[in-house]
Amino acid sequence: MASFNIELNNKPIKGSKEHNLLLRITVNRKHARVSLMYNVLPVYFNPNGKKSNYIRSSHPDSKWLNDKLDEKIMQAKDLVAEREKKGETITASIIQQLISKPTSKDFFSFLEAHIK
User: I need a surface site. Which of 9, 25, 44, 66 has the fewest CB within 10 A?
Assistant: First the structure.
């Protein structure tokens, strides 16, 4: 059984007071973390947040950020479900690699997807 949570990186980004958000993957008490492309100040992060409450409502983009974080968690859950259907092994590091793996091989197609 895999579980997922959002964490705040303990070190700020260089030259900023913001911290990077991480997706924590736990399988059989083994952890792996995936860096997400979202950053917030520690005052806006809710460490006890569950179900779309990871970023406090005092943040100007809290709704949008919480939706994006939920999407990432759902993406990870879908990957686990696919592997379970196939009967493949599931570890935290395998899920981490699958999430981090680039989906596009061409830079221009990546750029077009990013712009959209």
Answer: 9
